[in-house]
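Bench notes, afternoon.
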Amino acid sequence: MPHFFIKSFKVGLLLLLPLFYSSSFINKSFEESWTKNGQYLLKTKGDKEINLQGTISFLTSIEVSANGEKYAVLKLDLSDTKSINGHSFGFIVSEPYGKSKEIGAGTYPITSQINGFLNYFEGVFGFANISAFGELPYFAKEGSITVQSMDQTKLEGFLDIIFINPDGENISVIGNFDADRE
C-alpha cells in the first residue's frame, strides 16, 4: 500500500512540474527580451498585471527658484513607442543644490505633498498614463526611484512606486530602466 502512495505522489509531481516551468518561462522570456540601451522593463502588480516596455531618456539640470535657491534636477521620460494606445511615465527628481552638484547614485523617495512647481521641492514627483487602466492620469503616491549608476550618457536603476488616480484607484509598478541622455 505505501508503494501505491509513493507512486501516486511521483506521478502527481511529474504532472505539476511542467506547469511550474511554463509559468516561469513566460516571465523569464519577457525579462530576457529587455535589451537595455535606453529601455525600461516594468510590471504592474495587483488586480491587473501587465508588462510594460519602452524607451527611456533622462536630462539633468540646475534650476533656480524665484527666491534664488538652486536645485539639482533629474527628469526621466518613459514612453511606449510601439503602440498608439500604450503608456507613458514622467518623473522629476529634485534636491537642493547644496546637497550635491548633480543627482547621482542613491535612492530618492516619492514626495507625497507637492504644492505646485513654482515652489521647488526635494524628492520625486511622478505621473503615469496607462491606457489599460483607463483615461485618468495616475500620480506617484509612495515608493522610490533608485539610481544605481550614472555617467554622462547613461543612467541605470529601478523603481518601485504606487500610483493613485483622482478616483482613488491604485497601481503598483516595479521594474528596471537603462536610460540614455537626451
